[in-house]
Amino acid sequence: MGNNFIAIHHTSYLVADIDHSKYFYHTILGLEIDDSRPIFSFDGLWLNINENQQIHLICVDNPDSADRPEHGGRDRHTAFRVKDLSLIVLQLDEHKIAYTISQSGRKALFCRDPDGNTLELME
User: Is residue 38 a part of any domain in this protein?
Assistant: First the structure.
């Protein structure tokens, strides 16, 4: 059968406060909100990375957000390629959001959203 996978369509994160998460993903990281999200029985938000990939935020309790490793590279995470990592660093620094640099030597960093979900951002 071979590899039938084409791409990652979306990744989902559990969030506790949709407005706080919207600020992080939309205002700080600059992702576009996708208004085509249907009405579900729970609050949430879809954000476009590009025309083929998204982040889905699901507003529910996130009981496992505590006791995570300090370095995001040792935690479950989704990695995103970015055009210019230095622009991300400027935004994170401006908003006093902690991050760690990849320990592999790659041009990458790890940060957490307001609910402790880990993002790897890499050139």
Answer: yes
- Tell me whether residue 59 is in a domain: yes
pTM of the model: 0.79
What the block records as the tokens of 87 is 């622009």
pLDDT per residue as tens digits for the range 14-59: 888 999 999 999 999 999 999 999 888 888 999 999 999 999 998 8
- Residue 1: what pLDDT? 60
Query: What are the residue ranges of helices labelled H in 7-123?
Result: 18-22, 85-94
CATH (domain of 95): 3.10.180.10
DSSP three-state, residue 24? helix
Domain with 59 in it: 10-122
Q: Exposed, middle or buried: residue 4 (CB in 10 Å: 0-12, 13-18, 19+)?
A: exposed
